[in-house]
Design goal:
This protein is about 75% helix and about 0% strand. With about 325 residues, the chain is an all-alpha fold. Helix 2 runs antiparallel to helix 5 and helix 8 runs antiparallel to helix 9. The chain starts with a helix and ends in a 14-residue tail after the last helix.
Length: about 325
């Protein structure tokens, strides 16, 4: 948005172009039909999964029944009534609850979109007016410098991550096409989008691909091939490509990321999950550019061996010289 504004385009128009009229429309149009096909075939997919998992579930039920019988034999005061081995059917989700959940998720996402649109359209002038009304001139300038550092570094980070995820999605799509998976473009796009969520996104993609492979193929071999191929691609991306291109300065503690995703999902649903990691990154960059932010930076980092930015490194207090021993 700022790049287009420097070329003379108003910020509001730039924000609308970036959010609604870019490649998003074409991508959604391309993926809409295969996604609808999978949603329409969801009941059949569930039946196929139940049929394939049925023998394993039957064995587990028998083991559970034997364990219950052994427990009753060792318990003198237990009842002698035989245990029923029939499986209790899972309660079906009512249409009203599903509609309510969908409405809540859409409302949260629309709130994020509208808020982001207003922030992009307002830009630095709006942030300057907000900080000037809340602090003195010196503190306002300092806050604007920190906000600019957050925007610059987090923006650079997510631009690089977007290119990496695009490559992961392309590699996943080609691999799924080579393995004979249906709709490989859809799974490549799913892998690219979900990979923006650390740890949880890759795990969710692995589960989805395994389920789709279980439904689509006969036998265990192709299913294992699909799961192991994506697991290998995700491992290469997370352990080699991303540290090489992004670096480790903006890495976050996995426990903090997991708790932030859990809290964001509990507090605001899908929108909270989307906003959790960018908020942590912004907080870490702000702490790195603060004179008293070292404890917070260490708390958010995966290890105590921190790599501070050049600006933060200059502000570190040198260690006090050791006292000379008294000659007496």
């Amino acid at each position: 948005v700022e790049a287009l504004h420097r070329q003379g385009l108003p910020r509001s128009v730039s924000a609308i172009l970036m959010m609604f009229l870019g490649v998003t429309g074409g991508a959604v149009n391309m993926l809409w039909e295969p996604a609808q096909q999978w949603l329409a075939g969801a009941p059949r997919i569930v039946k196929v999964i139940e049929h394939k998992v049925g023998p394993v579930a039957h064995v587990l039920r028998r083991i559970e029944a034997v364990a219950d019988s052994a427990g009753r034999l060792t318990d003198a005061g237990a009842s002698t009534a035989p245990a029923s081995t029939s499986a209790t059917p899972a309660p079906s989700v009512s249409g009203g609850r599903l509609l309510l959940s969908t409405r809540t998720a859409l409302f949260a996402m629309m709130t994020v979109v509208v808020l982001t649109l207003f922030l992009l359209a307002g830009g630095p002038p709006m942030l300057g007016r907000m900080t000037a009304s809340l602090a003195s001139d010196v503190h306002s300038i300092r806050m604007l410098q920190v906000i600019d550092a957050v925007r610059r570094e987090v923006g650079r980070y997510y631009a690089t991550i977007a290119l990496i995820n695009l490559g992961l999605g392309l590699a996943t799509g080609l691999a799924m096409m080579a393995l004979g998976m249906p709709n490989p473009i859809l799974w490549g796009a799913l892998a690219a989008v979900l990979n923006f969520i650390p740890y949880v996104g890759a795990a969710a993609t692995l589960i989805v691909l395994t389920v789709v492979a279980t439904v689509s193929f006969e036998g265990v071999g192709p299913v294992v091939a699909v799961a192991s191929t994506y697991l290998g691609l995700a491992t290469i991306e997370g352990q080699i490509v991303q540290p090489l291109l992004v670096g480790r300065r903006l890495e976050l503690n996995p426990i903090i990321v997991f708790l932030a995703l859990w809290f964001g999902g509990w507090f605001w649903g899908i929108a909270g999950i989307v906003m959790a990691v960018p908020s942590l990154l912004a907080l870490k960059v702000a702490a790195e550019h603060s004179e008293r932010g070292r404890p917070l930076t260490e708390f958010l980092s995966p290890s105590t061996a921190m790599r501070f930015s050049p600006a933060a490194r200059k502000r570190q207090v040198p260690p006090a010289p050791m006292a000379r021993p008294d000659p007496g």
